[in-house]
């Protein structure tokens, strides 16, 4: 019988509304007057004995299940000569089909969250004794609560698998075109991989807004699935490949378990090694020995050379290095130190230094000169500001070489250090106890980056203090072999955050010339300049970095008050968002590992003034979202040595900004500079 609003069923369940009607029964929303909660009541009108048996099977299956992503059955009863009734939790919200009707398709983040939740439910079902198969996963059977919690509902086609050799113990033989795999159409055995196909098809529909091509037509007539990214280009290739694999025609080609499918969705298959607890503890800043001068720089402890032969431990550590240490190369505009530690400062514009603090720039392009080397700038053993004379560049003086051109041997680190009223550049080999000043710049120099051949340096000047942006600055090149300094002939001031391309021909940078941050490219061969990003004044772009092959530029874009990681071609074309962490997250400061496999970036919640955490994203598409790396916070300007043994980074102890080294082989971290002034912007020699 059809129940109406207000009817009392079995003296307990007051009907509130009809949720759906069909030839074999209905589903109602009701109020349980005994427990004082809303419930869902599913009705079967005894249309056939087969369907009655199926309905009873569903009740028995659901009554035995307890999982947060499955509805809970609270009652089952029969009304003589009327029908069967199944009472379960009522789930507020909408089903996935309704969400698709409203929005056409769901976002990648939502699809991953939905899919991973359903994989957890399926893992539970498939691991039951005996296993339970759902066999009717589709958007209409995926319920989403207002808080985002996901439920798998409607077990009308469910079956138990008593033995591997048995095809069906109980439940109906049926399918839903577009969502059922080929084996469900005939007498072939169905197993856990049947549900994996249906879940893949459900995610396909959610991501594209269309029902996928029917599996039977794909198997018999050779119909092809429309590529997901053709229908929705905002989806990453990684997620597309995960969903397509789940929908393989042959069960052997799919994920072999729901747990494996869930790991693939979350990007956890073949994860790079994470820091062990011991390694994380080793990264904690060790105390400086009391016998060591506060202004000195300790010599890094080196590990003995390994004997010849394959070293599994070294392979693990090398993978570990590429995972956590790769590529923060000249992308961080600075740190602000304070009582609570350091935080990223690029959140609000920094006032331009007063004219009295800004010295003369290095020679312009039309006044190329050599620079007199100085002996008054002492590395890390920093003199008091009053004892630091300002070096005066002389346009006609032959000065020789400011710093010897790098030679083969232990790797070197280039960095900036505040010296009196300006920052200056210093360089030192890994095992050297003293740094050497590169050359004095009256206006100061910072944010350096090496050319790929380590023969030249690009830097920002003037740099009188560590700032978020540099409204009056421009970019300069230093030839380490000749000491020649050249100002790049750029079309305006406010240029900073330079990054040298892997082929040595181009430099990408951020500029304020249009009143807000935009990304530009300068071609060293043609001496031409190209604006790569063009956004309205409320949208900022900055932090550009290159992929190792030079084919992609990654950068940060600030939209709607939040930073996101984007990428584009070197000509500015094909701009697309890389990571979609959701509306409450800021993602910024991208850096790419030298093998191009991993993107590191910083992340905070909506309040970007919080201490940032370091995140990792696998660029092969095997990971949906950024994965947190266990490192003491904050760590910025991460740079790795070419030989793969050392990682340099900067951090603060709450009093001062210094550079630290982490030896991947020995697992020890130690302070590399102990100057009372701030040391920052480390970058290893390529």
Which labels suit this protein?
686 residues; 10 helices; 28% strand; Neuraminidase; six-stranded antiparallel beta sheet
Account of the protein in words:
With 686 residues, the protein is α+β, with helices and mostly antiparallel strands. The protein has a six-stranded antiparallel β-sheet with strand order 1-2-3-4-6-5, covered by helices on one side. Strands 12-19-18-17-16 form a five-stranded antiparallel β-sheet, with no helix packed on it. The longest helix has 19 residues, at 108-126. The termini are far apart. It has three domains: 8-89, Phosphorylase Kinase, domain 1; 94-266, Transferase(Phosphotransferase), domain 1, CATH 1.10.510.10; 325-342 and 373-400 and 415-684, 6 Propeller (Neuraminidase), CATH 2.120.10.30.
CATH superfamily of the largest domain: TolB, C-terminal domain
How many strands?
A: 36
For the record, the CATH architecture of the largest domain stands as 6 Propeller
**Number of separate domains:** 3
Strand order of the largest sheet: 1-2-3-4-6-5
Distance between the termini: 79 Å
Fraction in beta strands? 25-35%
Topology:
Elements: E1 8-9, E2 13-22, E3 25-32, E4 37-44, H1 49-63, E5 73-79, E6 83-89, E7 94-95, H2 96-103, H3 108-126, E8 132-133, E9 142-144, E10 150-152, E11 159-160, H4 192-208, H5 215-220, H6 228-231, H7 237-246, H8 258-266, H9 277-282, H10 312-324, E12 369-370, E13 412-419, E14 422-429, E15 436-437, E16 446-450, E17 456-461, E18 474-479, E19 484-487, E20 495-500, E21 506-511, E22 518-523, E23 528-531, E24 540-546, E25 553-559, E26 562-568, E27 576-577, E28 585-592, E29 598-605, E30 613-618, E31 627-628, E32 636-640, E33 646-652, E34 657-663, E35 668-671, E36 679-684
Antiparallel strand pairs: 1-2, 2-3, 3-4, 4-6, 5-6, 7-9, 8-11, 9-10, 12-19, 13-14, 13-36, 14-15, 16-17, 17-18, 18-19, 20-21, 21-22, 22-23, 24-25, 25-26, 26-27, 28-29, 29-30, 30-31, 32-33, 33-34, 34-35
Helix pairs in contact: 3-4, 3-8, 4-7
């Amino acid at each position: 019988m059809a129940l109406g609003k207000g009817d009392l069923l079995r003296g307990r369940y007051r009907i509130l509304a009809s949720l759906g009607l069909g030839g074999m029964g209905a589903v109602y929303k009701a109020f349980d007057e005994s427990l004082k909660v809303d419930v869902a009541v599913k009705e079967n009108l005894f249309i056939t004995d087969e369907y009655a048996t199926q309905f009873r099977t569903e009740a028995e299956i659901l009554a035995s299940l307890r999982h947060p992503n499955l509805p809970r059955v609270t009652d089952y009863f029969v009304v003589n000569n009327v029908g069967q009734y199944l009472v379960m939790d009522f789930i507020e919200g909408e089903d996935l089909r309704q969400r698709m009707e409203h929005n056409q398709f769901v976002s990648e983040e939502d699809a991953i969250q939905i899919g991973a939740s359903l994989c957890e439910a399926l893992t539970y079902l498939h691991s039951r004794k005996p296993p339970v198969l759902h066999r009717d996963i589709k958007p209409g059977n995926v319920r989403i609560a207002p808080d985002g919690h996901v439920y798998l509902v409607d077990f009308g086609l469910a079956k138990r698998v008593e033995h591997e050799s048995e095809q069906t113990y109980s439940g109906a033989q049926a399918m839903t075109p577009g969502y059922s795999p080929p084996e469900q159409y005939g007498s072939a055995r169905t197993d856990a991989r049947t549900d994996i196909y249906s879940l893949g098809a459900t995610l396909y529909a959610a991501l594209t807004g269309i029902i996928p091509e029917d599996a039977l037509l794909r198997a018999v007539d050779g119909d092809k699935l429309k590529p997901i990214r053709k229908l929705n280009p905002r989806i990453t290739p990684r997620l597309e490949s995960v969903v397509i694999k789940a929908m393989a025609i042959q069960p052997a080609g799919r994920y072999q378990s729901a747990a494996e499918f869930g790991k693939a969705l979350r990007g956890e298959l073949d994860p790079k090694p994470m820091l062990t607890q011991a390694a994380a503890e080793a990264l904690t800043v060790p105390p400086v020995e009391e016998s060591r001068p506060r202004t000195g720089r300790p010599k890094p402890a080196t590990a003995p050379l390994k004997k010849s032969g394959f070293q599994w431990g070294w392979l693990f550590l090398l993978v570990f290095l590429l995972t956590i240490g790769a590529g923060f190369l000249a992308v961080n505009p600075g740190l602000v130190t304070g009582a609570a530690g350091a935080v990223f400062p690029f959140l609000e514009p920094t006032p331009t230094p007063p004219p009295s603090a800004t010295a003369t720039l290095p020679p312009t392009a039309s006044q190329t000169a050599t620079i007199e080397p100085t002996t008054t700038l002492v590395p890390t053993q920093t003199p008091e500001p009053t004892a630091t004379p300002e070096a005066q560049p002389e346009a006609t003086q032959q000065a020789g070489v400011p710093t010897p051109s790098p030679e083969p041997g232990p790797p070197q680190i280039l960095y900036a250090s505040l010296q009196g009223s300006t920052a200056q550049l210093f360089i030192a080999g890994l095992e050297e106890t003293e740094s050497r000043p590169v050359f004095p710049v009256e206006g100061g120099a910072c944010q350096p980056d090496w050319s790929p051949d380590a023969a030249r340096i690009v830097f920002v000047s003037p740099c009188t203090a560590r700032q978020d942006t540099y409204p009056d600055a421009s970019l300069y090149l230093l030839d380490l072999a000749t000491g020649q300094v050249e100002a790049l002939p750029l079309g305006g001031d406010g240029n900073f955050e330079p990054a040298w391309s892997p082929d040595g021909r181009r430099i990408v940078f951020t500029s304020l010339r249009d009143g807000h941050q935009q990304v530009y490219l300068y071609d060293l061969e043609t001496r031409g300049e190209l604006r790569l990003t063009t956004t309205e004044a409320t949208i900022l772009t900055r932090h550009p970095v290159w992929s190792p092959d030079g084919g992609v530029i990654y950068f940060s874009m600030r939209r709607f008050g939040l930073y996101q990681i984007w990428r584009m071609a070197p000509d500015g074309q094909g701009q697309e968002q890389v990571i979609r962490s959701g509306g409450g997250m800021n993602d910024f400061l991208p850096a790419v590992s030298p093998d191009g496999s991993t993107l590191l970036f910083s992340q905070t919640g909506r309040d970007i003034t919080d201490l940032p955490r370091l995140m990792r994203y696998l660029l092969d598409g095997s990971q949906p979202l950024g994965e947190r790396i266990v490192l003491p916070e904050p760590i910025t300007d991460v740079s790795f040595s070419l030989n793969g043994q050392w990682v340099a980074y900067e951090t603060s102890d709450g009093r001062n900004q210094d550079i630290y080294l982490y030896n991947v082989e020995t697992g020890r971290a130690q302070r590399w500079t102990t100057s009372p002034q701030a040391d920052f912007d480390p970058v290893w020699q390529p």
